[in-house]
């Protein structure tokens, strides 16, 4: 069994974590598969770094290649996983968590690699689950992820969970043991250090103290990897129908490996995800703007920029904006993209309209999710693209 429940409610479990023996960690770790999806040169460079070496690149499916013979690539991934398991690539850490210290542009972000029970997670707002998604789940993004996971022997997490701990009580409870990795990440990803936490039960109790006494039992919000976790949930729901109660209790696919990060971590920054409307009718888009509110957003195009009204309630404003963009595209044609960074906006403004959106305040985040449920898709980003989670740890799911 890959995870063992360690608390009354069973939402958090202690994983058996797989790490490579004596690997070149610079080649081993690669960034989350859903990053740089328009930059093939990035992934070509990663492929060169991983060539001929044990690497998570050979175990994951970069989304930029999802339309490039996916059956062949998925079969190769499954074969590589089997080969790595049978070839002694991995060592197994049991009985604890891993403290991840990731050096990024604004400091050192700290997280804890642990397991969650998919029975306590839901991406449906009405379920009010202990572990909740944070953005609307787009149905057509799930089948490719489900098919990739269906035949996989391993999972490698890029899922990042957020927890609400202003007093930093969880990390304060963690007891540091062996340093299990410490290396520079490729492709400008900074540095990462992993330290084994051997007092898992005390850490779990600290997590659960964060929700004790609350009417709305809400522990984790999914910060990154919403669709990957939703795919894992749906596949587990499918698989468990053929299992006995005893088998369901211990099956490794019931548990998902994630990294949990305190939303109050000083090195965790929330960035807005801007909207770019590719269109030759920029003035019509601006003239037809139908949003109102006490705030404003900057809208840029080839002819200049304007400040246009926008609701103070940022998620509601994004919902309304996305609705307006959808209706505009139906009438005038074009396409929408979701853009990280102001520099990217400047590069695109000559090809259409760029809407520079505000960032959500971290301190309001959990209240927003508790009040409204899922945010609109592509509402926020945790850090810049190169600061996203790299694949390092693995866990069996078969």
Question: What does it look like?
Answer:
The chain has 398 residues and is of the alpha+beta class. Strands 1, 2, 6, 7, 8, 9, 11, 12, 13, 14 and 15 form an 11-stranded mixed sheet that branches. Strands 16, 17, 18, 19, 20 and 21 form a 6-stranded antiparallel sheet that branches. A hairpin with a 6-residue loop joins strand 1 and strand 2. Helix 4 crosses helix 7. The longest helix has 19 residues.
Q: Calculate the mean pLDDT score and round it.
A: 92
Helical coverage, percent range: 25-40%
Largest sheet: 11 strands, mixed
Which spans have pLDDT < 50 for at least 5 consecutive residues? 1-8
What is the CA-based Rg, rounded? 21 Å
Strand residue content: 25-35%
Dominant shape: globular
Cα separation of the termini: 9 Å
Number of helices: 12
DSSP strand count: 23
The secondary-structure class comes to alpha+beta
What is the topology?
Layout: E1 3-5, E2 12-15, E3 17-20, H1 25-28, E4 30-31, H2 40-50, H3 70-86, E5 90-93, E6 97-104, E7 107-117, E8 121-122, E9 131-132, H4 142-150, E10 154-155, E11 160-163, H5 169-173, E12 176-184, E13 191-197, H6 200-209, E14 220-224, H7 226-239, H8 245-250, E15 255-262, E16 270-278, H9 282-287, E17 295-301, E18 304-310, H10 314-332, E19 335-340, H11 342-348, E20 352-356, H12 362-372, E21 380-382, E22 390-391, E23 395-396
Parallel strand pairs: 8-9, 9-14, 11-15
Antiparallel strand pairs: 1-2, 2-7, 3-5, 4-22, 6-7, 6-13, 7-15, 10-23, 11-14, 12-13, 16-19, 16-20, 16-21, 17-18, 17-20
